[in-house]
Fold this sequence. Notes:
Order of helices and strands: EEEHEHEHHHHHHHHEEHHH
Radius of gyration: 26 Å
Distance between the termini: 51 Å
Number of strands: 7
Largest sheet: 5 strands, mixed
Number of domains: 3
Number of helices: 13
Amino acid sequence: MDQYIGLDVSLKDTAISIREDGKRIWRGKRASDPKLLAQVIRKHAPNAKRVIFETGPLSTWFYHALTAEGIPAICIEARHAQKILNETLNKTDANDADGLAQLAEAGFYKAVRVKSFDSMLTRTLVGARNQLLSISTQLSNQIRGLMKTFGLIIPKGTGRVFDGNVRELLAGNDDLARIILPLLEAWRDIRKRAADLDRQLLAVARRSQASKLLTTIPGIGAVTAVSYIAAIEDPDNFRTSRSVGAWLGLTTRRYQSGEVDYNGHISRRGDNHLRGLLYEAATVLLTSASARTESSLKSRGLQLRERLGFKRAAVAVARKLAVIMPSMLRTGEVFNASAGAIA
């Protein structure tokens, strides 16, 4: 007989439920250690067919570690699972594990693709860089806001210009300087660390032929190219290139009930950061006057801007970019400026 296992994973402990022939045969709780859980599964479910758990902070580690132990691990979409698990009267980890085991036995779940550790390492690099840039912006805004209180308006400028303007305005105001200068030093240090991660990111982009290929698209830089490749990994992960646009939440939502049938805003599902990068790339493509950006894609996007407005046109161009890029990765061809009109 085959056994079906549900794992309700948390940071400290993992609830385990094992089912066989429509009945629960064992359940318990162990520390959230994949090797320990693999031992428990081999002991109580020697013929394990499916071991499922939901997406979460530990899902990448669990999936690869359990798979390496020979366990048939499957990571499933948490949103879908929760709609069923929420029907349970008493919400406990043990009951959630039971529900997951039932989903495993029924086959009623949506498996998700778990990224490799290499891809996650790249995404971590991009995320750390973005976090430092965000902190830098917050600190500079904080400095500007604090100094306004005393009538010291910092002129526009970034980097060394900003640093010089702040120090110049603080000259002769020692009491305020003792408060602001520590913030300014922290701002400078954060920018240095962000620059270090920038160099690492550019090095990753230079080593990747796929990244070099994608940067032939106007508006696509190293950060967007590396983020895109880390997100989709292999273009063959998608049945068609058009699926990538929907996967990134760039397609419109539809609502139909009775006589009502309309399309709403984009779904905004998937990778928020990558979707934002593609929107920025589309904005650059539509607003840049450079001859390098001239293409059929831009021409069609400008036509849509006249008819639908800038934001909708930018979303349409971003969706088209998401569709074009996997095709380029499959064929190894550079961006064709005469092709790529928006469907």
